[in-house]
Design brief:
By secondary structure, the chain is an all-alpha fold. It has one domain. The protein starts with a helix and ends with a helix.
């Protein structure tokens, strides 16, 4: 079951990343367009269960935040010595940015 879930998550991520309305940067897409991209990907892989939709969307968002954190660390040359306070500040700003449109 876990292997199928992992495969479905990977397929979902590929569909989202390859969607013509998504340029790879969550910050540059409107909330309504982002929802349309996600719903299109859900439809393409046959996911109708709301819990499964939420799980896939959350994993995609976690992946995006992790990539942003890694970029932030590299940009600020703190990859080897980032502090927990820096991570908390980054997550707070990221959360505020992501949740603001809602």
């Amino acid at each position: 079951m876990a292997e199928n879930t992992s495969h479905q998550a990977a397929e979902f991520a590929q569909l989202v990343c390859g969607h013509p309305r998504f340029d790879g940067k969550v910050e540059t897409i409107s909330v309504s367009a982002w929802k349309a991209v996600l719903n299109s990907a859900f439809k393409n892989i046959g996911v109708a269960d709301v819990v499964r939709k939420a799980t896939l969307a959350e994993s995609l968002l976690e992946h995006h935040v992790l990539q942003s954190w890694q970029t932030y660390c590299q940009t600020n040359d703190i990859a080897d010595n980032a502090t927990f306070d820096q991570l908390l500040r980054f997550l707070t700003v990221t959360y505020d940015t992501i949740s603001g449109p809602y």
